[in-house]
Amino acid sequence: MISWRKHYKKGLIAIGLLLSTSASIYGQDGDPKNGEKLFKANCTACHALDKQVVGPALKGVVDRLKTEQGLDTDWLHKWIKDNKALRASGDKYANEVFEKFNKTEMQVFPNLTDKDIDDILAYTTNPPAEEPKTDAKATAANTVAAPQNNNTTSSIVIISLIAIAGLLVWILIKLRQLVKLGQSEDLAGLNETRVKSFSEIYAKYHYIGKGLLAILAILATYGIWNWIMWIGVYKGYKPEQPIYFSHKIHAGEQKIDCQLCHSSAKYGKVSEIPSMNVCMNCHRTISEYNADHYMEPGKDKAFYDGEIQKIYAATGWDPAKQQYTGKTQPVEWTRIHNMPDFVYFNHSQHVVAGEQAIINSFNKKNPDNKIDVVCKACHGKIDTMNVVQMANDFTMGWCIECHRTTEVDMNNGYNKEYFKNLHEKLKKQYPKDGGKITVDAIGGLECGKCHY
């Protein structure tokens, strides 16, 4: 009896040690759900669970370090909080990791508590199962209309076909009666009085004919003139691009500033097409698409992932080795907004000098469709477009109308001093408007401003 109790106690102690060791090794002390939030907020810029990004894949990192290096979670705590200090202390493995990953310094996280790090490690050891995604196809299959609805539809189709068949039979009968009537002697008298040529009709009604011809000539002339005036106006034009890029996802959902990609719009004449290196600022670490609620109808995850791979092919990026191969493929974008050679337009003049004036003017004219970024005044609500299209006419009349209605801000320091004398003159010239000065009043309608 004593021997059994002795072995029982030893067994309990062994089980307790095993469980505590297992918990320590596998990071079970933390909360994986909270760890997932912390991981996404602090780690996903450089790490993923199942593949190397900037840094190594982190799934099972606790067990891997224990098995391969004999290191416990205390080492991971030191590395995460201040890897620079750990390397400076001469830690061999810390310096090996630094050398292995091209001497790319990992960000330090002194703000993370020991509990936070335990939660992150618990997430890398035992990630919470993803919630099952709703299969759109299965849902559609499960929402097939009830049999009685199908029967009702079939009945309507059959009745319609019978009605059409009856109508056709009635028309055939009437045509047969007309043929018989034409073959009778009752129409002989009518045939003698019938006009037998077009010239007789024209001679009889030539005034009406000339009037109709005049009207047709006027309509034809107007049609040709209208067609000529709209040559080169491509409002609604939205060509397919070699790499699919959704402004709705980037500018709308992700709130990326327009000028982060189109940087020259602020200080240059032309708003350039961003280079592929600009795309790689983000997509070096974003190699797949995981936002189901942003998907455009008819497109799935495989489609978006494939477009990201096109970016890698264009820049010569090898995501597996996390380095550039030097083999690039230029992307032939299709230009959408293209001013004629004889038109001068300066983006910086509108984006910087006229920014607030344009926004105020647009919102005043469109109280139910206000904008918050000056770009939208010309390019439309770009943050709602999956495929970019030309939102306005971009004709000379369209530009002139904007210059006539956009009020210049004369209260800022530069305009107030530079246009001081002009301001006083225009106050007297336009007293009914309270001295308001629009762009046309300061030379906005001069030919040389836009044509040179």
TrEMBL record:
Residues 1-27 form the signal peptide. The keyword Zinc does not apply. The keyword Magnesium does not apply. Residues 30-128 form the Cytochrome c domain. It comes from the Bacteria. Keywords: Heme, Iron, Membrane, Metal-binding, Signal, Transmembrane, Transmembrane helix. The chain crosses the membrane at residues 155-173, 212-233. InterPro entries: Cyt_c-like_dom, Cyt_c-like_dom_sf, Multihaem_cyt_sf. It holds the Pfam family Cytochrom_C. This is C-type cytochrome. It comes from Chryseobacterium zhengzhouense.
